[in-house]
């Protein structure tokens, strides 16, 4: 009992020594439309919005919990927040060269809210926090080591990478490349092309106008009413895919651990190549089959033929169905 009480007292005393310090930052710099925002911070959430002014404004707050107030003050002093403009490039930085060693029980929080002209490009990076970008008319590149990404109404190419979070893109137009090592990806609306890649989650792409490429090692894939070519691959889930319109480009769907359902308008013309090792192939379309038709394999033309639709699964049924019109 004495040993337990001594241990409890020691832990309580150690916990009591931890403190919390905060700081804040506000600044504006002139910035005409057509410029670029560069954000490079050690930690914290980044939010970028648009406004009608010819300037970039920043409001930031940071909260640090370390073993002592002196350590916290030094920690923040080693990472001063700066906002500068040079030749149309606005830079927001707060990073100590070489980084830092994480201490048990420490807590780091920061929030950066940035407003820029609508016609602006952005390159954003944080080592720990989410990133949200809305309304930009320019290329957006965002990278975080530990947080989610969200892009809304971007008119320009979008490249997003996170090592541990979900990704969402709504009504974005351009080349969209999204990568996460541990989360889901959700794309809604938009146009151009989209490439979504995750190692540990599901992927859903809806009402997108353009080529869609989805790849996951551990989840399902849903491609709903996409207007363009489709390519999807998963090692651990099913695939549901439908086209909004005819088969205008090649379709390639493959899974090692689930079923495949492909839906397309009744009058669509295409070449079907469907094969499964662990189930059957079922089609609501009349297929002018090449050679003798097999239960697990169907090859042939639909409505006279056209672009190739390739469907492969090692562990489920393949279904080709007529899309119900809304």
Structural class: mainly beta
Kindly provide the radius of gyration, computed on alpha-carbon positions and rounded to a whole number of angstroms.
26 Å
So what's the overall shape? elongated
Binned, the helix content reads: under 10%
Mean pLDDT: 91
Strand order of the biggest β-sheet: 5-6-2-8-10-12-14-16-18-20-22-28-24-27-26
Low-confidence segments, given as residue ranges, are 1-16
Q: Major β-sheet, in short?
A: 15 strands, mixed
How many separate helices? 2
- How many E-type strands? 29
> Beta-strand percentage?
over 45%
Distance between the termini: 71 Å
TL;DR?
The protein is mainly beta.
What does this structure look like?
This protein has 326 residues and is mainly β. It has a domain at 238-326. The protein is 7% helix and 54% strand. The strands form two sheets. A 15-stranded mixed beta sheet has the order 5-6-2-8-10-12-14-16-18-20-22-28-24-27-26, with no helix packed on it. Strands 1-4-7-3-9-11-13-15-17-19-21-23-29-25 form a 14-stranded mixed beta sheet, covered by helices on one side. The relative contact order is 0.09. The model is unreliable at 1-16 (pLDDT under 50).
């Amino acid at each position: 009992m004495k040993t337990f009480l001594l241990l409890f007292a020691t832990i309580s005393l150690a916990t009591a020594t931890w403190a919390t310090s905060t700081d804040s930052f506000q600044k504006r710099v002139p910035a005409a439309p057509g410029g670029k925002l560069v954000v490079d911070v050690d930690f914290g959430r980044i939010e970028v919005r648009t406004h009608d002014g010819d300037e970039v404004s920043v409001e930031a707050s940071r909260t640090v919990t370390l073993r002592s107030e002196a350590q916290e003050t030094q920690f923040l002093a080693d990472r001063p927040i700066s906002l500068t403009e040079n030749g149309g490039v606005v830079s927001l930085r707060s990073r100590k060269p070489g980084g830092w060693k994480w201490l048990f029980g420490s807590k780091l929080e920061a929030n950066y809210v940035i407003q820029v002209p609508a016609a602006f490009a952005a390159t954003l990076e944080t080592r720990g926090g989410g990133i949200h970008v809305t309304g930009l008319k320019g290329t957006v590149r965002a990278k975080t080591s530990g947080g989610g990404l969200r892009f809304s109404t971007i008119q320009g190419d979008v490249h997003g990478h996170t090592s541990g979070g979900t990704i969402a893109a709504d009504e974005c137009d351009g080349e969209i490349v999204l990568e996460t090592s541990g989360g889901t990806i959700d794309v809604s609306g938009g146009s151009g092309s989209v490439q979504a890649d995750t190692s540990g989650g599901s992927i859903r792409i809806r009402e997108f106008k353009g080529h869609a490429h989805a790849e996951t090692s551990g989840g399902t894939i849903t491609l709903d009413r996409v207007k363009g070519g489709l390519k999807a691959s998963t090692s651990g889930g099913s695939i549901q895919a439908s086209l909004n319109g005819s088969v205008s480009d090649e379709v390639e769907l493959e899974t090692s651990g689930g079923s495949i359902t492909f839906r397309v308008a009744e009058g669509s013309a295409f070449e079907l190549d469907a094969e499964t090792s662990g189930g059957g192939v079922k089609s609501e379309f009349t297929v002018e089959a090449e050679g003798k038709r097999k239960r697990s394999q169907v090859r042939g033309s639909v409505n006279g033929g056209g672009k190739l639709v390739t469907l492969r699964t090692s562990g489920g049924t393949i279904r080709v169905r007529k899309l119900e019109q809304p």
